[in-house]
Amino acid sequence: MTAPLADASARQRVCTETGSTLFVNAGAGSGKTSALVDRVLRLVLHDHVPLRHVAAVTFTDKAGAELRDRLRVAFERAVMQGDGTEEAAREALDDLDPAPIGTLHAFAQRLLSEHPIEARLPPQIEVLDEIGSAVAFEDRWSGIRGELLDDETMAQPLLLGMAVGVTLDQLRSLALLLGNDWDLLEERILRAPVEEVAAPDLTDFRRKAEVVLDLREQCRNDSDKLLPKLGDLAAQLAQIEAAPDAETALMVLRETSELKPTLGQAKNWSVPVAGVRAELGEVVSEATLILSRVRDACLRRLAEWLAVRVLAAAETRRAESRLEFHDLLVLARDLLRSSPAARRGLHQRYQRLLLDEFQDTDPIQIELAVRIAAGETADAEDWHDIPVPPGRLFVVGDPKQSIYRFRRASIATYLDAAQHLGEEVSLTTNFRSVAPVLDWVNTVFGNLIQAVDGGQPPYAALDQHRQQWERGPGVTVLGRDVHLDLPSRGGADELRAREAADVAAVVQHALVDGWQVTDPVTKELRAARPDDIAVLVPARTSLPFLEDAFTAGGVEYRAESSSLVYQADEVRSLLACARAVADPTDQLALVQVLRSSLFGCGDDDLWRWKHAGGALNLYAELEDEALSAGPVGTAFRYLKRLSFDARAMLPSELLATVVADRRMWEVAAGRSRSRDAWRRLRFIVDQARAWSEVAAGGGLREYVAWASHQGQETRRVAEAVLPEKDADAVRIMTIHAAKGLEFPIVVLSGMTAQQNRRRGVQLLWPPEGGYAVKLSKDVQAGDFDAAAPVDEQMDRLEKRRLLYVAATRARDHLVVSLHRKEKGPETAASLLAEAGAGTAARAVPFEPPAAASPMPNRPVATVSPPPEFDEWWRGVLLARRSSERPSAQSASGLEGTEPEVVLAASPPPAGSAKGARDLELPPWTKGRYGSAVGRAVHAVLQVVALDSSDSDIGVDRAVAAQCVAEGLLGQEPLVRGLVGSALASPLVQRAAAREHWREQYVGTLQDDGTVLEGYIDLVFRDDDATLVVVDYKTDAIPAGALASRVTYYRPQMEAYVQCLTAATGATVRAELLFLHPSVSATAVPV
């Protein structure tokens, strides 16, 4: 008999108390998706809330798809059970696909689409993806930068700022950060006016400097080492006095601020040397203070100016309805704040709101949910003051897994909402991990995660459900003892190398020793395979060491998730080629691509070319035939031809051409990690293609400039990793990428890394208000140092939660690295060791074997030898010719109206007069290529009942709506007359009284391998079982021309008959129905 779950009562409440607002703390592996499914089933099947009125907001698209799939299975099961809920389940299945189940951004887009007028948006909303947003930002920054340089009022702040270290690249980064949080700019930056920037007064500085310089007379020894520093100060003071402007003076003052008031011997001075040093220190401090004030004033003025432009850009995106992801959230919140009608409508439409992974989503989410749940009366400025009706909200999350601060996720918001919304319920039973792993997790993180007001939740222990297995330790510790032989400073690479060697060794041991895992499909025990093992790292610093150790140990692996794609050698070579072609004057790019594996030119080749008088440009030629035929000359001829071809190519086409021509696929195949190189090349070409789709009119130079920003050292991009079912390899990924996943064996590596100090431009939003900005080590606003410690503390607390997320990914075995030095900065390993990770829950220390265990033999697939080249090449040419032919031909439409038909050397066969197109268009245009009037008539006949009377108001409404859609205002009587003639015709009335289908797609395979396809306006089954094809025609033709028009349409109708006959095997005949607005329609058999 199975023991009851420790949290059974909580799970019962989650499922049954649908009239209560619950805030569910769901621990790792506690089955929160199952809890969500159970609650939705209860709402739909027993509380009779239609699924279309239930909104479920998930953190990722994958989570939303999983929830939708599991609901589908549950509803289908309910239909089959026959327990009285069948009708509700069937209705839910009908509602499931369009149901509001998805990410927060998708939900916000839905809200705006439902109320575009109230949101001040055009009806058609376009949402830019990551690449589209990046391209749009570059366009905006180009305009902002030009405006900044042209703005006379900003000359002083900009010039003074650049004099004290501000750069345009830093301002670009600041503009990007401001755009990411543009909803905060009005309140945090623009509310308080900023004083105008003035040139600093250097009077006090000069006076203090002159006092110090007078002390030089007190030096009795010209070789004293303090004296040169005073000489430097004298020279700097003279430069300041002679400076033509304040900017030049500030640039000199920066040198003064770097003077070190040290050295000097007492015996060489007639006054105390310490006093001289102190006086010099006063001067340096004064220079530093002046620079700090100027930097603060300039930064605040520049930030204010940029904030105004960023807000204007956001308003432009709203007016143009080209929105970025963050725009969706802000505009949806503004909609709910400002429109009682929208709140009322959304309150009625979304009667239940379920929020999943609440700890990792934007704080705006809670305000959206509260205002929708409360409805029209939710007009309080602060969401805390809005009462939420019981049962309207259901929130699920785990504060211990809040690890997305960089995406605006706020642990403080979670803890605050838990206090204000409903009653807290905890799911603590873990169905994922075995008992030893949970014992270790509870012991270690019970010590490591301690409650901090507004920053850290209290630790809630996980209850065990799974039992122990038979072979292999539950928790293994690497490097349990401190490394005493490493210095407290330095030695980081050696520590990482030792850790990586242990990781490779324990992976080998687990595979050779046959650690048992539970198969995720069969649920049976079996020996572990490489693809059961995931090595999780907090950052990619240790990745090169892991790769070297795995390669040396013969361990197959693949690195997943985000990576420095643009830093890979093959990608750098490919982009260097693009730069050289885009800008023939870029000799650096040209030399780089010549020396790369694309052309293989050595330094000796380049020297011989230059020595012979050759120039380094694409158009260089030499009379020396040997050199011209050599590597450099061959490369120049190729690049020259490519530069001409590039004028008619998209960037993605050029990159794909270079990859194919220079055999980059084949070259990568001969190297280690070939799969990774192939994936990166595919990714770069695909991203270039996506760039072209959003960068209207952008050429190769614009793409290269955009790609250079992607190649910044700190920019990591998520590769589109295609499934590799045949890759039985250990997976290496970041902990963030592993969120939401689980693995039989988890190895925590990279634990030697210190707390990362943020680099580059930083923008902080302190809890008490305002903002703090830092552009570089020396350039920051005056209050940044006060705000930074709070932010760093939140980072340190999140680091502990990140380790918890990593450890709870393990199902059967957990391996933890504790490699650390005796002294030194805090690392993840030192944190875990101090929390008792080395001895908790009978953790087993790993002792690397003296000799590495041989990896188990893996079956080698039999590879057939390649064919002869001529045979292979004939197959390639045949495939190319086949791919050049259209794969499908459409029968719908008039004969000869397609350009490919008009321009064809020979007429096409009957019934294939039209190329396939527009199959993805909305219903009112799909398959209709005639006039707007014809499209409107077809659309109305598609939606109205065929037995409608001439006075049916539904027909009039459909006609009016379609005329608006087609821009036919004033043409309603004409469209109404044509529709009426069709509905009144005996042929349509006969179809209405029988089984019939409208706008029916048909297709069949032709002898040449192409698909013949089309949309039939109307098909009905006649009394003799014959299928009758009816095609509406709105041609305005005289009766005498009817016969010739029938002949013209005959190929199209014969194609319909052919397709339908092939699909059904029935007898098929076709009739054309010519419509007229004032007389009866004419039916003509074909």
UniProtKB/TrEMBL annotation:
Any one GO MF term held by the record is: exonuclease activity
Q: Which UniProt keywords apply?
A: ATP-binding, DNA damage, DNA repair, DNA-binding, Exonuclease, Helicase, Hydrolase, Isomerase, Nuclease, Nucleotide-binding
Source species, domain of life = Bacteria
Asked if the keyword Isomerase belongs to this entry, the reply reads yes
Q: Which EC number(s) does the record attach to this protein? A: 5.6.2.4
Mind telling me which Gene3D superfamilies this protein's record contains? 3.90.320.10, P-loop containing nucleotide triphosphate hydrolases
UvrD-like helicase C-terminal domain ranges (all copies): 456-740
Tell me the PANTHER family matching this sequence: RECBCD ENZYME SUBUNIT RECB (PTHR11070:SF23), UVRD / RECB / PCRA DNA HELICASE FAMILY MEMBER (PTHR11070)
Q: What is this protein called?
A: DNA 3'-5' helicase
What is the protein's species of origin? Answer: Microlunatus sagamiharensis
